[in-house]
Write a structure and sequence with these properties.
The chain has about 300 residues and is mainly beta. It has helices at about 90-95, 290-295, and strands at about 5, 10-15, 20-25, 35-40, 45-50, 50-60, 65-70, 75-85, 105-110, 115-120, 125-130, 140, 150-155, 160-165, 170-180, 185, 195, 205-210, 215-225, 230-235, 240-245, 250-260, 265-275, 280-285.
Length: about 300
């Protein structure tokens, strides 16, 4: 699962054993020492909430997405099982091995009794809002099969969401501030955002929050059609666009991550392909002044 999870002063990784397909929680150290062995198969997304983990996985025999709560001792409790109604091993295999399109599996918490996950459900990539108490799903935002889906999601301080989605042609739109019905069935076709035509088809997108000069900022980073990395900012309170920067020229580049630094700047991590062939990690450092210009 492509997310580094803070765990006290350390970090952990949720991953899959390639032989028996089981899920493991390992420390992000040189030895990758195992913290927990879990019976869940095909881990899709994970996050740490307090001292517990929440996990989205896939059980191929019953063709179900499984939402689980894992305590600090590694004991798993199934919150809910959600029918896909078809064999999803092929798209999941292509997703996990990077041999096909990466699917936007997401997971998180809305409130103490309400979670969300973006996963496979009812023949479709959909956003579900399961209850923590019993796994019931009062709210679903249905995609269009696997062709149109929400690609990133960020819960804002005012209870609304920033999100991106792609349509059936793989074109990305952003909704920098929108309400989502967590207690009703709706469709991704009801969500109308602003097109980001520069992004690659089915672009991977990451959204996160920043605090710059007392301003709450939404930061988006993704990959463009011409192989550059885009970093854009939006005002969290109004949703207004603030500014953008592009990184990488000459070689093909892919987005990695963006983090704040102690001096008020940013670090932008990208993967660059030297002569279009040899993949290398590369870091850009933005100063505090450059970040303040980026957010207007």
């Amino acid at each position: 699962v492509s997310e580094l999870i803070p765990s006290g002063s350390d970090y952990t990784i949720v991953c899959m054993d390639k032989n028996d397909l089981s899920t493991k929680i390992v420390k992000a150290n040189q030895d990758l020492s195992i913290e927990s062995n879990l019976s869940a198969l095909y881990p899709m997304a994970a996050k740490k909430i307090g001292s517990n983990y929440i996990l989205l996985s896939y059980f191929p025999d019953d063709r179900q997405s499984i939402f689980s709560l894992i305590n600090e001792t590694g004991l798993a409790k199934t919150i809910g099982k959600y029918d896909i109604f078809e064999d999803a091993k092929q798209p999941i295999y292509e997703h996990q091995t990077r041999k096909g399109r990466r699917l936007p599996f997401l997971i998180g918490q809305v409130s103490p009794d309400l979670y969300y996950f973006n996963g496979l459900y009812n023949f479709t990539q959909s956003l579900l809002f399961p209850k923590a108490s019993n796994g019931d799903v009062p709210g679903v935002v249905n995609g269009v099969r696997y062709e149109s889906a929400i690609s990133s999601l960020l819960l804002l301080s005012n209870g609304k969401y920033a999100l991106t989605l792609y349509d059936v042609n793989g074109n990305t739109q952003i909704l920098s501030q929108t309400a989502l019905p967590t207690d009703a069935i709706s469709s991704i076709n009801n969500l109308k955002g602003i097109a980001l035509p520069e992004l690659m088809t089915y672009a991977p997108v990451k959204l996160q929050k920043l605090l710059v000069k007392g301003k709450n900022v939404i930061l988006l980073n993704s990959t463009t059609k011409n192989g550059q990395v885009l970093v854009s900012t939006y005002d969290e309170n109004s949703g207004n666009f603030l500014g953008s920067m592009y990184f990488g020229a000459g070689n093909k580049n892919e987005t990695g991550n963006v983090i704040s630094t102690s001096d008020g700047g940013l670090i932008v991590l990208v993967k660059t392909f030297v002569t279009g062939r040899y993949g290398r990690l590369m870091v850009y450092k933005l100063t505090k002044e450059q970040v303040e210009k980026l957010v207007g």
